[in-house]
Amino acid sequence: MATLRLPDVVPSPTQDSERLRVALQGWGVDQEVIIWILGHRNAVQRKKIKETYQQHFKESIIHCLQSALSGVLGKAIAYWMEEPPERDAKLVEKTLKRGKAGITQLQVIVEIACASSPNHLMAVRQAYCSLFDCSLEEAITSKVSSSLQKLLLGLVSSYRYDRELVDLNVAKSDAAKLHEAIEMKQLDRDEVMWILSTRNFFQLRATFEHYKQNYQVPIYQAIMSSGSDDLRSLLRVVILCIDAPEKHFAEVIRASLSGHRTDFHSLARAILARVEIDMMKIKEEYFNMNKISLDDAVVRKTSGGYKDFLMTLIGARI
Amino acid sequence: MDPPNDFEALTKAFSGFGVDEDLMVSILGKWHSEHLESFRKRTPKFFLEDERLFERWDDHHIACLTKEFPRFKDIVVQWIMHPWERDARLVHEAITKGPQAYGLLIEIACTRSSEELLGARKAYQSLFDQSIEDVASRLEGIERKLLVALVSSYRYEGSRVNEGTARLEATTLAIAVKNVDKKNPIEDDGIVRILTTRSKLHLKAVVKYYKEIYGKNIDEDLDTLMSLKETLQCLCNPQAYFSKVLNDAFKDDADENTKEALTRVIVTQSNVDMKEIIEEFDKQYKVPLTQKIEDVALGNYKDFLVSLIRRVA
Predict the structure, then answer these.
(1) Which InterPro entries match (chain B) (predicted)?
(2) Which of A48, A141, A187, B112 might form a disulfide with B117, Cβ 3.0–4.6 angstroms?
């Protein structure tokens, strides 16, 4: 369930654009107004504001926001205003460009492939081609180590069926095939990749459930017990993103908030990506994991406009 | 009424791609029972003398007519159909037919644009409640890895080519081809990845470098690896591929699957590459495509084919 709160009567994109213009151009940037407006608009509404702002003022609002707002708040709001496919394509490009991408970086790709809709993944692939003059698959090929390439390529190439159609016989046989691969420590088999990449999400959840019932242990635990390497860690992320994305994102948020330095980028990324999808569930998971509410954790570890913006999005601030 | 000529004409009306409806109406429509009896007795090509003393229609020929009469219906229906639905149904047909039809899967996955292939994937989900790659991952045969990856591709279609990488990949292919006895390249992750993720322009560069470095066309070296050969040809030279498919359809010993390609190629390529295919056909086989169609096709089916081609020629 989303935590993004919309006003009962949403102002027109023209009204929003004008108020934002004033907030951006006046004496001292009015952060409050910017957060107040943009923090209470969904993706469709934000897109209309962007288009209207461009039409009226002949400038890109993202550009204006980035100039006017400094630091992590500026980045977060610019990120919030991007079209999700372009946003995610740019995120992947940045991730891969960094070189020596480990699991913490590559999980971004898994999130896009496994924790969002098939249409969104397809849109990211299309955006990637437009923006970077090569396909997402080619980028992964050139930047990701070969042991992880096959799995990631399979995951990003899929265009899964999006209805709830489950075949229990397939669940049974897929669970058996996965079990065999785990037992034989052959997790790089084509079959493993095909099962995880091509089956629809509902089918896979049924398969994972079947696995737990038949083999008395959740599949991701079985994988982690069978050894430890990058492939297994990645597979764990894959399964979590398919089966219980709220757990994965709660983990990502927890990791970004722990340690001396808050990882502002990962925190913003995880929250902004899920605010309109399943933030409430993520907050519940976060509390179960850490015995402290996400709201309190964000308050403790962040400050200023950045904090206000995140709090608005997660519904902790009106 | 001119029985010998009529019989010959009528025999022709039943022997080709499609049937000559007008001729059948103009001749048969006028016959009485004695003409029909005469025709049956004097056309052993279609009728056998049964032991119980009547002329029986040859089962094999009835089976042929069952395929020839609906050719016009098929081409009309396919022509009107949305390209996405058309491709999705072709894919489904190929998957149902099994390994002998994998070439059709390769054809669709490789000759369509990225957006067209995506459209076919969407239509497939609507029509058959599954994704193509899900079904493909359960196909039999060593081509499976290649096929799953081909139907899942969304290739970059811009003009940028990394010449260095293309040259490197030409070498990778050459090594794989040379080691064919140790490992079939079609099961090599690296080879499959090159063929299924690179842009068509990039692969054309790879083919060019292969020729430069090794002095041969890569399809000569891929002669025994039909699926790989077809994949590359569909990606880099679809006109030559379609031209060959058409020529195969015209051969005397062509089976129904091969003959169906005539409808399929003309319909699916009519708004795409038809002009280039016509030119290539002319170059390869020294006879204009329209001429060939006039020779072997009949009736409404022939007229429809010719009018589709004439739109672009």
Answers:
(1) Annexin, Annexin_repeat, Annexin_sf
(2) B112
